[in-house]
């Protein structure tokens, strides 16, 4: 996948060996990019990310910065979220979550990355 280099791949393989054997929600929670609610009764808080494996999250953040430049799928997603009014860091985390779901599905199904044809 464009944006995932040798360092990011090695980090994902070594720090997240469960990838490909778990469902997408569990994968996002393990990385720490799943939104967590802070609500109680009538109190409505903001959703934030928390927990997870911060080494993988840090590597994927840097990989996403590269993917936004080179991968048309993530570039379009990021631009769409920012145009909708999301803060830039929130849009990056949403793209990381999409990347984790895609990588988990690719490993589960044993397929290689194919960029969609325009």
UniProtKB/TrEMBL annotation:
It comes from the Bacteria. Transmembrane segments: none annotated. Residues 1-79 form the Transposase IS116/IS110/IS902 C-terminal domain. This is Transposase. It comes from Shewanella japonica.
